[in-house]
Amino acid sequence: MPKADRYHKTFPVTWEQLHRDAKALAWRLLERGSFTKIVAVTRGGLIPAGIIARELNIRHIDTACIMLYNYREEGDAETVLKNADPSFNTPDTLIIDDLVDTGHTAQILRAALPKAHFAVLYAKPEGLGLVDTYVTELSQDTWVLFPWDSDIQYARPIIDLQKKEEA
């Protein structure tokens, strides 16, 4: 788990839960208006964007490639590898990401596409004000463990983890 001093809880997400949450987000978006375009934020937003594109029958899809988390190094540094096409700066565009955490990535995308509707599966307090729609709010000290970042293996009971932190 990266940056152990910053994250004290883990929220594991299975493939099934991710799919359910993406469909729940699609239902919320359907109530918010008619969307014809999606900007998927790579990499975490690709799978949710694909599910939402299917559910809302959206075929016009672009990507914004922004690297923020680097598990090999301490500290976060944004790197914009590819920004979204400026023609996607319209109210009928969805920006889809898996998570808004500190809001750094969201700030970059909001600056590039201020008219678009920003939607995420999971939101934390520091970034919550930057998104328009989300499914689940989590505490800031929670690390979301996505299925593409994990293996199935034995998990220690919470009480054992607590004892380890106290030692």
From TrEMBL:
<keyword id="KW-1003">Cell membrane</keyword>
<protein>
    <submittedName>
        <fullName>Xanthine phosphoribosyltransferase</fullName>
        <ecNumber>2.4.2.22</ecNumber>
    </submittedName>
</protein>
<keyword id="KW-0660">Purine salvage</keyword>
<keyword id="KW-0472">Membrane</keyword>
<dbReference type="GO" id="GO:0006166">
    <property type="term" value="P:purine ribonucleoside salvage"/>
</dbReference>
<dbReference type="InterPro" id="IPR029057">
    <property type="entry name" value="PRTase-like"/>
</dbReference>
<keyword id="KW-0479">Metal-binding</keyword>
<keyword id="KW-0808">Transferase</keyword>
<keyword id="KW-0460">Magnesium</keyword>
<dbReference type="Pfam" id="PF00156">
    <property type="entry name" value="Pribosyltran"/>
</dbReference>
<dbReference type="GO" id="GO:0046872">
    <property type="term" value="F:metal ion binding"/>
</dbReference>
<dbReference type="InterPro" id="IPR023747">
    <property type="entry name" value="Xanthine_Guanine_PRibTrfase"/>
</dbReference>
<dbReference type="InterPro" id="IPR000836">
    <property type="entry name" value="PRTase_dom"/>
</dbReference>
<keyword id="KW-0328">Glycosyltransferase</keyword>
<feature type="domain" description="Phosphoribosyltransferase">
    <location>
        <begin position="15"/>
        <end position="154"/>
    </location>
</feature>
<dbReference type="GO" id="GO:0000310">
    <property type="term" value="F:xanthine phosphoribosyltransferase activity"/>
</dbReference>
